[in-house]
Amino acid sequence: MLDYYTRIGPVIVPHLRDRPLTLKRYPDGVDGETFYEKNCPSYRPPWFQTTRVWSGQNQRWQDYCLVQDVPSLVWVANLASLELHTSLSHAGKLEQPSSLVFDLDPGPPADIVQCCQVALWLRDIFEGHSLQAFPKTSGSKGMQLYVPLNTPVDYENTKTAALGLAQQLEREHPEMVLSQMERAKREGKVFIDWSQNDQHKTTVNVYSLRARSRPTVSTPITWDAVERCWNKKDASLLVFETAAVLQRVETHGDLFQPLLSLEQRLPQALLEGVEAPIIDPSQRKAAWARRREIEKPRSTG
User: Fold this and answer.
1) Is 12 exposed, middle or buried, given 0-12, 13-18 or 19+ CB atoms closer than 10 A?
2) Where do the domains of the chain lie, and which CATH numbers do they carry?
3) Continuous segment of H or E residues that includes residue 240
4) CA 231, chain centre distance (Å)
5) Distance between CA atoms of 33 and 192, rounded to whole angstroms?
6) Separation of alpha carbons 40 and 52, rounded Å
7) pTM of the shown model
8) CA-CA distance, 20 to 39, in Å (whole number)?
9) What DSSP assignment string belongs to 172-202?
């Protein structure tokens, strides 16, 4: 585990830097009890950085860990913090999310295959607004879709947009999509968890390990891979362990790099939760060409 985080460090650290980190610790291994830790341990080394976040629930300040470099990452991993769950905001700008996110959670017997179809519907909506979206596996049973913003926006805006789109897809595809929280209704459907767009919630970070019997990783993927999984109906196509992820980065580079700097603004219609148009078929070919240009594999040397 330490070897993986050391080797993936140069790629994952930019996605962790300046983001309050909630530790999810497994001192007795993945089959033992786990606990979350928001306050960075007091026995941290003097060079380890933290940021203060007000807890409304506890009515006090909490010092969250910041993973700013590879040594910080290895120190956190050595606490048996196998999973890395970060805020969608940066320290100092906690009210401003840098991305809009959709957590696609399949209810058995649905799996990541059905998540692929829902992700493709969402992609088409965003392309209709000339917005780019980037998918990744959760490393568990589902997947997530990120729309980088990196422009002034607040969580009320992003949550409204996410809820509106989740409800729209539920109306259009009630046999597959669910926007409501009730677990009893999730059987065989994909729940679009729009509520992750919240200042007080965290999402598993890209390239994070998941605490499972297999060392699976939350892995960025291309839209071609999403389409292939949906067409072949083969969930195993989107399961990646540590060795495969390291090889993918060596071959393709960081597919999530645009999340760090791509500036996009949500259109007013989405901010108001208004029903969004699907991309016009006449525009699809050009949109796909732009996307494939972005996704061209590259070597990191």
Assistant:
1) buried
2) 2-92 (no CATH), 96-294 (3.30.70.3300)
3) none
4) 23
5) 28
6) 10
7) 0.89
8) 10
9) H-TTTEE-S--GGG-TTSEEEEGGG-STT--
For 67-88, what is the HEC assignment?
CCCHHHHHHHHCCCCCEEEECC
pLDDT tens-digit profile, the chain (301 residues): 999 999 999 999 999 999 999 999 999 999 999 999 999 999 999 999 999 998 877 788 999 999 999 999 999 999 999 999 999 999 999 999 999 999 999 999 999 999 999 999 999 999 999 999 999 999 999 999 999 999 999 999 999 999 999 999 999 999 999 999 888 889 999 999 999 999 999 999 999 999 998 999 999 999 999 999 999 999 999 999 999 999 999 999 999 999 999 999 999 888 877 665 544 444 444 444 444 454 454 433 3
Residue corresponding to tokens 């120190």: 75
